[in-house]
Specification:
290 residues, alpha/beta, Rossmann fold, DNA polymerase, domain 1, seven-stranded mixed beta sheet, binds S-adenosylmethionine
């Protein structure tokens, strides 16, 4: 189920015949709602997951949508090179529900599966490659930086001692044993987040692609970004703030002073929305600069 749907539509503010770029189109929830309000054919849908792309093709090809199987950094570079610009751009970051629910994708602590975690299964490096080949220093760095895991060293040592690891349940058990002490969530939650971010190079993707999204906006165009963990949200907040403000050369005006979060009602029906944060901005028209 798409998160923050009505809030996203409020900030994207679709109007008939406007153009739309969805950088993480997934199963097309947000894209379907935007298309219904624009009656638009000028829709570009990007996702790095082949399963998502197959579904998007079934649902949107007949309507003339352009569908791109790619990570969004490469796709954004290509679109900039082609001189494209859009009225609305959405990035709803992170994994989709099928990633978490299909055990064979290896994302979930709660489903036993191979240690995979690749959003794009044509990519070479899996989570198993990282846990089985990285040295202690690199594992500690990944767990600390991407998982903000205070027990990174102990967990890295336990992983190294018990190699080779092949399944998610094996990893979850090793981390739980190494953890000791109280944890509100499963003790392997941070480890799984860290590995997922590393496998998919998630932070670099956002950091390098976000400036391109600003270039891909038409003057007056709206950008909305939904993130699911603080590391990602910090990058989005910082880059949007740098490009906005009262400077003479500001490119953006922020539409959200604070991140927008899910309502209580949404949290009841969609627990995945718990950590979602939406930030939005509009590209300033040159004659409107302060
Ligand atoms: C939260 S889901 C998006 C759901 C979508 N908004 C909907 O309404 O169905 C995130 C999607 O983004 C894709 N994704 C995440 N990071 C990506 C990246 N760097 N490049 C391209 N796609 C990415 C994932 O494969 C996943 O399908």
């Amino acid at each position: 189920m798409p998160v923050l749907m009505s809030e996203t539509l409020q900030y994207l503010d679709p109007k008939p015949d406007e153009t739309y770029l969805d950088l993480t189109a997934g199963y097309g929830g947000h894209a379907g709602a935007v298309r219904a309000l624009t009656n638009g054919r000028a829709v570009t849908l990007v996702d790095r997951d082949q399963m998502a792309i197959s579904q998007l093709k079934e649902r949107f090809s007949d309507h003339g949508a352009e569908i791109i199987h790619s990570d969004f950094l490469s796709a954004s570079n290509q679109l900039v090179q082609n001189g494209r610009q859009y009225d609305m751009i959405l990035a709803d970051l992170g994994v989709s529900s099928p990633h978490l629910n299909i055990a064979s994708r290896g994302f979930a602590i709660s489903h036993d599966g191979p240690l995979d975690m690749r959003m794009d299964q044509t990519q070479a490096v899996t989570a198993a490659d990282i846990v089985n080949t990285y040295d202690e220093e690199d594992l500690v760095r990944i767990l600390r930086v991407y998982g903000e895991e205070p027990r990174a060293k102990r967990i890295a040592q336990a992983i190294i001692q018990q190699r080779p690891l092949t399944t998610t349940s094996q990893l979850a058990k090793i981390v739980a044993q190494a953890y000791r002490g109280y944890s509100k969530t499963h003790p392997a939650t941070r480890t799984f987040q860290a590995l997922r971010i590393a496998v998919n190079d998630e932070l670099r993707q956002v950091e390098q692609a976000l400036p391109l999204w600003i270039r891909l906006l038409k003057p007056g165009g709206r950008l909305a970004v939904i993130s699911f963990h603080s590391l990602e949200d910090r990058i989005v907040k910082t880059i949007l703030a740098e490009r906005a403000g009262k400077r003479y050369d500001a490119e953006l005006q922020l539409l959200t002073k604070r991140p927008v979060v899910a309502t209580k009602d949404e949290l009841v029906s969609n627990p995945r929305a718990r950590s979602a944060k939406l930030r939005a901005a509009v590209k300033i028209k040159i004659n409107e600069r302060g």
